[in-house]
Amino acid sequence: MILLSFIVLIPFFSALLLGIIYLYDPSKPREKLYATIGVTAPAISATIALVIEAKLLVMDSSTVFHYTLFEWIHIGEFQIELAFMADRLTAVMLFFITIIGTLIHLYASGYMKGDSGYGKFFSYFNLFMGSMLLLVLADNPIIMFIGWELVGLSSYLLISFYHQEHANVTAGNKAFILNRIGDFGFIIGLAILFIFLEGHGYTFEAIEANMGLIDPSILPYIAFFLFVGAMGKSAQIPLFVWLPDAMAGPTPVSALIHAATMVTAGVYMVARFSFLYNETPHIGEFIAIIGASTALLGAIIASFQKDIKKILAYSTMSQLGYMFIAVGLGAYSSGIFHVFTHAFFKALLFMGAGAIIIALHHEQNIFKMGGLKEKLKWVYIPMLIATLAISGIPPFAGFFSKDAILITAFSSQQYTIWAMGTLTAFLTAYYMFRLFFVVFCAPSKKKHTLIPLAKSMIVPLIILAIGSATAGLLGIPEAFGGNNIFASFVALPDVPLHIAHSTEYLLSGLNILVALTGIALAYKLFARRVNEPNNSKIWRLVLTHKFYIDELYIFFILKPLLLLSKFLAYFIDGKIIDNSINLIIYIYRKAGIIFATLQNGKVRYYAFYILIGVSFISTSMLIILGDF
Predict the structure, then answer these.
(1) CA angle at residue 618 from 615 to 620, to 5 degrees?
(2) Residue 486: phi, psi to the nearest 5?
(3) Would you tell me how many other CB atoms lie within 10 Å of the CB of residue 142?
(4) CB–CB of 317/264 below 8 Å?
(5) For the segment 135-170, what is each residue's pLDDT rounded down to a tens digit?
(6) Is 268 left (phi over 0), alpha (psi -120 to 50) or beta?
């Protein structure tokens, strides 16, 4: 189906076109032209994606669309084509990537108004969209990896977009380098996989069909190394420290990274390789443990942050942990369902935060805000819906997807993971309503003079608010009278639940109670005052500084590596290797001087050398013959 290629190629083409127009004359303001091209391209991709999704909806669940653009590599039996595939998992990813991506592009057209790099921004933005779509539509892991790397490149360009400030460049470098560490693991996993599948095809369908050719003892290594790539891309322990610093880019970048593109790639990859992870349940359990630990750590750190964007960044890290709990335990539909619902409310939260930042002259400290309920009504109501959704309050989107994950953990007898997830749910409700009450409800200490917001920033908030309120209804489980339309559509191999409906009711009730307790605590502490917390206490200082994890990385990893590099550069290379080479050069130079005296151009000397040589040869022959 040729339409598959258009979904990917249109954003890439628009990125190229925008780049050429911008480079032709960067100083010329063409904001309407840039915005038109920049928003239209993802909108066309979204329209085509909806057509494909509609076709898949009425066809058998096993239907897969294919399209080959061209043959890329053909060396012997090794053949890789630039080809695309779309099944129901792909359709779900396409739906929120293209639609929410289009809304974020529309929002960005107002947010970036007046920026000198307006055209460059939209060129990078469309490149980001095209890269994620390539990753999702790829029919083999090599093409997926190309999209994977292009997503990393795009994020680097956008995080360090305001490169005039050194901190922004550092943040971009940090994201790029940490993702390369994860990607090295991904490459190792693919290399092992391809060695064992040599000559049997390298598409996802071929890999699944030929899993029996791989030594079962090797499968855990492949599964682990592929997940290392997901650790970097989806900001899981220990490769998560780049994500909060990624807030250095413009807010629409944060919305796109956290809601519709980069960080969801790792979860998608694990779901796409579900046939592999089903064969390695202990690696799946490891993934779930990493996910639960990341979810809890992110929630704890978010509870003590002041920067509105960093609160949401750690929130994303935490929610990604939930997704990995699900896919790690084999509940792939639940994990992807949380990816789906999270896309709506997290895009809304970031875009709402961006609207607040713009209105308050780029203020990001929540404790310097307050009292915005009446002044920013069209931001207040959507933000309330999104906050309820992420907190797991029914019937908003996050309740059903998060509830399904926690119930799966309990059903799988992973009680520690379930307890960590439940505690994370409490903290999520607490820190999100802490943000909400401080920003909108608590009285402000100063009178705010607000900058008016463009309509292009408000309309996406309203649309996403509707999605945040209703998207969860697609996954109502059987216990609540539904038939989980989402799971039925996506048709992934899921671990069955082994608990009664009565237990589901109790667990769901507990989840609601836990969320309400977090909201009540946040209300008591922050709804009536906006005083910035005192960080004089050591425990609060540690939590505010994120357990000093960055500092620990610098002290235990970065500084030793720098010392090792200096030792290698200045002692091993400078003193030993260079001096060894210089000694050889010295010897050759001195030998050259000695031999140069022999080659002096005087015939008498050459005749004397000949005489000595002939005498030496004659004497040697006489000795050998015994006549001397």
Answers:
(1) 105
(2) -60, -50
(3) 17
(4) no
(5) 999 999 999 999 999 999 999 999 999 988 888 999
(6) alpha
C-alpha to C-alpha distance for 393 and 526, rounded to whole angstroms: 20
For residue 472, give both structure tokens.
Answer: 């969860």
DSSP state of 395: T
Mean pLDDT of 10-30: 91
3-state secondary structure labels for all residues of 155-191:
HHHHHCCCCCCHHHHHHHHHHHHHHHHHHHHHHHHHH
Rg, the chain, Cα only: 31
DSSP assignment string, 101-124: HHHHHHHHHHHTTT-TTHHHHHHH
Give CA–CA dist 44/355, Å, rounded. 26
Ramachandran region, residue 169 (left: φ > 0; alpha: ψ -120 to 50; beta: rest): alpha
Sign (positive or negative) of CA dihedral 185, 188, 192, 198: positive
DSSP state of 79: E
User: CA 581 to CA 572: how far, in whole Å?
Assistant: 12
Amino acid at 628: F
Burial group, residue 614, by CB count within 10 angstroms (0-12, 13-18, 19+): exposed
Question: 79 - beta bridge partners?
Answer: 74
| Cα 546 to chain centroid, rounded | 20
Residue partners of 156: CB distance under 8 A and separation at least 6: 172, 173, 175, 176
The answer to whether 261 and 101 have CB atoms below 8 angstroms apart is yes
Answer whether 263's CB lies under 8 Å from 234's CB.
Answer: yes
Instruction: Write out pLDDT tens, residues 273-311.
Output: 999 999 999 999 999 999 999 999 999 999 999 999 999
Eight-state DSSP code of residue 497: P
Q: Among positive and negative, which fits the CA dihedral 346, 348, 349, 351?
A: positive
Q: Residue 113, Cβ neighbours under 10 Å: how many?
A: 14
Question: Which tens digit of pLDDT belongs to each residue from 80-89?
Answer: 889 999 999 9
Whole-model pTM: value is 0.89
Token pair belonging to 164: 């005039």
Closest CA to 256 of 341, 322, 343, 177: 343
Beta strands in 21-137, from DSSP E residues, in sequence order: 65-75, 78-86
Burial 362-390 (b: 16+ CB within 10 A, else e): eebebbbbbbbbeebebbbbbbbbbbbbb
Q: What is the rounded CA–CA span in Å between residue 93 and residue 4?
A: 13
> Residue with structure tokens 């819906």?
385
For residues 361 and 370, give the distance between their C-alpha atoms in angstroms, rounded to a whole number. 14
Give the chain's count of helices (H) and strands (E). 26, 2
Residue 436 banded pLDDT, cuts 50, 70, 90:
very high
Of 390, 421, 415, 391, the residue nearest 294 (C-alpha): 421
Cis peptide before 395 (omega within 30 of 0): yes
Closest by CA to 52, choosing from 39, 68, 65, is: 65
Q: Scan for tokens 């015939």, then name that residue.
A: 603
Contacts of 123 by beta carbon, 8 Å cutoff, 6+ apart: 15, 16, 18, 19, 22, 38
